[in-house]
Amino acid sequence: MRLWVCIALLSTVLCASAERPRIVQGIVRAGQFVRDAAGGATDMYRAYKDMREANYKGADKYFHARGNYDAARRGPGGAWAAKVISDARENWQSGVSGRGAEDTRADQEANEWGRRGGDPNRYRPKGLPSKY
């Protein structure tokens, strides 16, 4: 009996209006953001893995742009994950790699290009296998 009373009350609260209550909408949006962010992190990892596998000179900007592009297409959570991962990677690499500020700036430009929806093929070097 208590179960049916709980179901009736829950149905009344959730279905009283045609719209979902604000708290439910907020929870749904938060869940979508988290799912997009996790998918975006996966996209970034896939691009990194492909870059390491390709081991192709001059292709790093392409993979930066592609990872950010794929992540941002998932939505705000994916774009957020791409920005956080890209910024952390560049901050760490700028102090370790020794390639200099110019390379870091170019990497960040490719990251931004991809996040804004620009075609990653802009940075694709000639001769990179079509697998990538």
TrEMBL record:
* Pfam families attached to this UniProt entry: SAA
For the keyword Signal, the answer is yes
Q: According to the UniProt entry, where is the signal peptide?
A: 1-18
Q: Where is this region: Disordered?
A: 91-132
Q: Which UniProt keywords apply?
A: Acute phase, HDL, Signal
Q: Which GO terms describe its cellular component?
A: high-density lipoprotein particle
Gene3D superfamilies attached here? Serum amyloid A protein (1.10.132.110)
List, in alphabetical order, the GO biological process terms annotated in this UniProt record.
acute-phase response
Biased composition of type Basic and acidic residues is found at: 100-122
Give the protein family.
Belongs to the SAA family.
Function (record text):
Major acute phase reactant. Apolipoprotein of the HDL complex.
Q: What is the designated name of this protein? A: Serum amyloid A protein
**What organism does the record attribute this protein to?**
Copsychus sechellarum
